[in-house]
């Protein structure tokens, strides 16, 4: 009986120590996350290497806020390579689409009202990013709204620039040997 009680006490002591270790680790993680959240609220760069995806995400977000859209898209692309979960990938694609959409909107338009080639390319890439975001998270209302907004902008200014017509006319005669 006493042997059984000693084994039980040893088992419960081990479980208690294991639980204390897990609780200490959870407290440490909570403290670290609290520091990260405070830095995010203050708009500061995250320098903590314990959370590399959050650090990269904040760097990309900061670049977008500073109107450095090309680098923001590049940093978001690097973040995608870190293989986050599907929901995180959906948010990253959404942010890529937002940066490309804004980048296309700040481009100047041609004299005929059509977008410059750079803007047209940015809009096309933004559309792809929004669609990818919706493939990963079909219920994302913000991505649906931005995609429909992008479609309305693209419909108005995406006509191709007028091409010069050649003065040479082609006949309807077949080319080649009879």
What does this structure look like?
InterPro entries: TPR-like_helical_dom_sf (IPR011990). This protein is mostly helical. α2 packs antiparallel against α3 (69-81) and α4 (86-105) packs antiparallel against α5 (117-136). 70% of the residues lie in helices and 0% in strands. 20% of the residues are buried. The chain has a domain at 41-157: Serine Threonine Protein Phosphatase 5, Tetratricopeptide repeat, CATH 1.25.40.10.
In short:
With 178 residues, the chain is an all-alpha fold. The protein has six helices and no strands.
Termini separation comes to: 109 Å
What structural category arises from helix and sheet content?
mainly alpha
Give the full name of the CATH homologous superfamily of the domain at 41-157.
Tetratricopeptide repeat domain
Return the CATH class of the domain at 41-157.
Mainly Alpha
Low-confidence stretches: none
> Strand-and-helix sequence, N→C?
HHHHHH
Number of helices: 6
Quaternary structure: single chain
Determine the fraction of residues in helical runs and give it as a percent range: over 70%
Radius of gyration: 28 Å
Please give the CATH architecture of the domain at 41-157.
Alpha Horseshoe
* Principal-axes shape call: elongated
Describe the largest sheet: none
Approximately what portion of the residues adopt beta-strand conformation?
under 5%
Care to count the β-strands? 0
If you average the pLDDT, what whole number results? 82
At the fold tier of CATH, the topology name of the domain at 41-157 is Serine Threonine Protein Phosphatase 5, Tetratricopeptide repeat
Organism: Methylophilus aquaticus
InterPro entries: TPR-like_helical_dom_sf
Protein name: Tetratricopeptide repeat protein
């Amino acid at each position: 009986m006493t042997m059984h009680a000693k084994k039980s006490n040893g088992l419960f002591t081990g479980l208690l120590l294991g639980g204390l270790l897990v609780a200490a680790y959870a407290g440490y993680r909570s403290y670290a996350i609290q520091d990260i959240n405070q830095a995010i609220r203050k708009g500061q760069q995250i320098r903590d290497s314990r959370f590399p995806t959050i650090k990269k995400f904040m760097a990309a977000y900061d670049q977008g806020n500073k109107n450095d859209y090309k680098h923001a898209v590049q940093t978001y692309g690097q973040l995608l390579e870190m293989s986050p979960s599907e929901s995180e990938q959906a948010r990253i694609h959404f942010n890529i689409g937002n940066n490309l959409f804004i980048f296309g909107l700040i481009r100047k338009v041609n004299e005929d009202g059509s977008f410059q080639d750079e803007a047209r390319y940015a809009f096309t890439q933004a559309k792809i990013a929004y669609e990818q975001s919706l493939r990963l998270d079909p219920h994302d209302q913000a991505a649906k709204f931005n995609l429909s907004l992008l479609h309305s902008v693209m419909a108005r200014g995406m006509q191709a620039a007028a091409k010069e017509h050649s003065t040479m006319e082609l006949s309807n005669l077949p080319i080649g040997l009879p």
